[in-house]
Specification:
Layout (H helix, E strand, L loop, with lengths): L4 H28 L6 E5 L11 E4 L4 H15 L27 H10 L16 E7 L23 H9 L2 H4 L2 E8 L2 H7 L2 E4 L6 E3 L25 E5 L7 E9 L13 E8 L1
Parallel strand pairs: 2-9
Antiparallel strand pairs: 1-3, 3-7, 4-6, 4-8, 5-7, 8-9
Length: about 280
């Protein structure tokens, strides 16, 4: 039996009303819970941190200039303080010097893996070989599309060779997917002054394992609007022999199929300035 015109009209009005109300609710949620794109954080940071000019400046011969950076890294890394074995360790497990901590084999192993970017080495600042830590934020909004050699899609021609080699040494089907990381001098002069850099831990791929990231596809839908609840894994970059007496502009970025590189964007990219005297 067919519906009369009056009934059909009521159904249409109700359907439209539901759609309008749903749209308004969606708009309000969008305003209250704005989308945040994945960002690459740089640590340590100054008290007056400025994304456009985040300067790390110290004089090697003056502990009063580098000790504040050492202290800021200690404060940042306190969230990772643990004696529970992690494999692989997400971060240096302690911010206490060797003479002030209880020797726990798993922790000592983690500190060794993170050397020279650990508390016992003053994170390299005492020796003019500073470590900078990188971490991803806002990943709870994000579903990454990692690069790996097992997929038929092409690898970008500008991808660094060390990442290409890591893809073969740590294939995704065996070690899982990674969000790869690379750092370099931002401009030609910076490339000449930056010197060799090393990614720490040195025996792990230069990137963030997706299994350790609480991305949107790995958490309940209700949690996707909440801040990151667990401190994410870190990557440290140690500058082994940076040129002294000049400002070095450093750019770090992540490599993921869903993020188009843009020199002017903050999405998946970070920059800072290094000035060592």
């Amino acid at each position: 039996m067919g519906l009369d015109k009056r009934t059909i009209k009521i159904i249409v009005i109700v359907s439209v009303t539901v759609l309008v109300i749903g749209g308004i609710i969606g708009l309000l949620l969008g305003l209250l819970l704005p989308y945040r794109y994945v960002e690459l954080e740089v640590w340590p940071r100054s008290d007056d941190y400025n994304y456009e000019q985040p300067l790390i400046h110290f004089r090697v011969s003056d502990s009063g200039t580098w000790h504040p950076w050492y202290r800021k890294l200690n404060d940042f890394l306190k969230a990772y303080e643990t004696t529970v074995p992690e494999e692989p360790p997400r971060a240096p497990c302690s911010v206490r010097h060797q003479e002030h901590r209880l020797p726990v084999p798993s922790c000592e192993r983690a500190l060794s893996m993170w050397a020279p970017c650990n508390v016992d080495n003053f994170y390299g600042y005492r020796d003019g070989r500073p470590c900078v830590f990188l971490r991803l934020s806002h990943v709870h909004y994000w579903v990454p599309e990692p690069y790996n050699v097992s997929m038929p899609l092409s690898i970008p021609p500008d991808m660094p060779n060390n990442i290409r080699k890591a893809m073969h040494l740590f294939p995704a089907h065996q070690y899982g997917d990674y969000i790869w990381v690379s750092c370099k001098g931002e401009f030609a002069a910076d490339e000449e002054n930056i010197g060799p850099i090393q990614y720490i831990p040195a025996n792990l791929p230069p990137g963030f394992p997706t299994s350790r990231l609480r991305t949107a596809d790995r958490i309940p839908r209700s949690d996707r609007s909440l801040p990151d609840q667990i401190s994410g894994p870190l990557i440290a970059v140690v500058f082994e022999n940076p040129h002294r007496g000049v400002v070095i502009n450093v750019e770090c970025r992540i490599w993921s199929r869903d993020i188009a590189y843009d020199h002017n964007s903050r999405v998946g990219r970070a920059r800072f300035e290094l000035y060592i005297e």
